[in-house]
């Protein structure tokens, strides 16, 4: 092992420690650490004095195979590395400017959601997908308060806790599912040893397995490509269609800004139908007299 490789490995471990000490979310820690693994591999572990020209080459090549989101995350990861590991001043790169876009999230209809649940024949995945949808959760740790019919979401985005309503149907479903696996700690234990060993599991349901299973079931149902997060988006949209106040939906989803929640009004058939009715009612109030025109 060369001296540069040894130094990089040591600095990478320091990078991981600082990421944890700064209280960043696990997803952010993984993104920033993956960034340094990728950058280290690209420059043969010699990353301590990268020039603007070298970074231009790296990010240009990265954009050929990855999204702008990956480019931004690698940039932020490298900035963190320079700031907290190398203790070097960071000059903001002017060469990276992702296009400003605002895409509407992918959702499924209520009928499609029902088909997804029905077509999921593996019990743990079926219950997980239904819970994910009926609570609007991200993949996070949650505590069930059956008495108050609330779910305590801990360490959500922004390191904030929040309470969300727990539908009776979901509570019954979770209780029946627990009777099957009886794990004393985990709500959704992993499937490595099957249901018979689930009560001994110490790790939760595998994220990759959840994503791959949902992708395959959606394909089998003839539904467009969706992710577990699409179920959260669908839940928000269906709440608004059902008449739940927008501010309440904002609280349930844990959105910092009401503008984020308001995006879902563009996805609702009910909202669009009401808008059509109101617009037509407004326009019908104007009488166009065709007799006095040339």
UniProtKB/TrEMBL annotation:
Domain Tyr recombinase: 103-279
GO molecular function: DNA binding
Keyword Ligase in annotation: no
Residue ranges annotated for the Core-binding (CB) domain, each copy included: 3-86
The keyword DNA-binding is assigned to this record: yes
A GO BP entry: DNA recombination
This protein's UniProt keywords: DNA integration, DNA recombination, DNA-binding
Domain of life: Bacteria
Protein family according to the UniProt entry: Belongs to the 'phage' integrase family.
Name used for this protein in its record: Integrase family protein
Source organism of this protein record: Methylobacter tundripaludum (strain ATCC BAA-1195 / DSM 17260 / SV96)
Lineage, opening ranks: Bacteria, Pseudomonadati, Pseudomonadota, Gammaproteobacteria, Methylococcales
């Amino acid at each position: 092992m060369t001296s540069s490789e040894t130094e990089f490995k040591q600095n990478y471990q320091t990078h991981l420690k600082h990421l944890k000490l700064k209280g960043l979310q696990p997803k952010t820690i993984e993104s920033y650490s993956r960034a340094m693994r990728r950058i280290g591999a690209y420059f043969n572990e010699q990353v301590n004095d990268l020039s603007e020209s070298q970074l231009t080459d790296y990010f240009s090549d990265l954009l050929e195979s990855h999204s702008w989101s990956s480019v931004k995350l690698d940039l932020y990861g490298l900035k963190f590395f320079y700031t907290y590991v190398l203790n070097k001043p960071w000059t903001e790169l002017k060469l990276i400017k992702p296009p400003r876009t605002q895409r509407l999230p992918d959702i499924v209809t209520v009928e499609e959601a029902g088909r997804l649940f029905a077509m999921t024949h593996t019990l743990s995945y079926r219950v997980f997908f239904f819970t994910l949808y009926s609570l609007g959760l991200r993949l996070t740790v949650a505590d069930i308060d059956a008495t108050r019919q609330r779910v305590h979401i801990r360490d959500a985005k922004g390191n904030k806790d929040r309470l969300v309503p727990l539908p009776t149907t979901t509570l019954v479903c979770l209780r029946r599912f627990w009777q099957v696996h009886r794990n004393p700690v985990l709500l959704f234990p992993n499937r490595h040893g099957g249901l018979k060993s689930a009560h001994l599991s110490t790790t939760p349901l595998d994220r990759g397995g959840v994503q791959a299973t949902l992708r395959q079931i959606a394909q089998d149902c003839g539904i467009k490509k969706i992710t577990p997060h699409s179920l959260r988006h669908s839940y928000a949209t269906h709440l608004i269609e059902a008449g739940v106040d927008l501010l309440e939906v904002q609280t349930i989803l844990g959105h910092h800004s009401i503008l984020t929640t308001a995006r879902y009004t563009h996805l609702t058939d009910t909202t669009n139908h009401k808008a059509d009715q109101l617009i037509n009612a407004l326009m019908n109030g104007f009488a166009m007299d065709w007799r006095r025109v040339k």
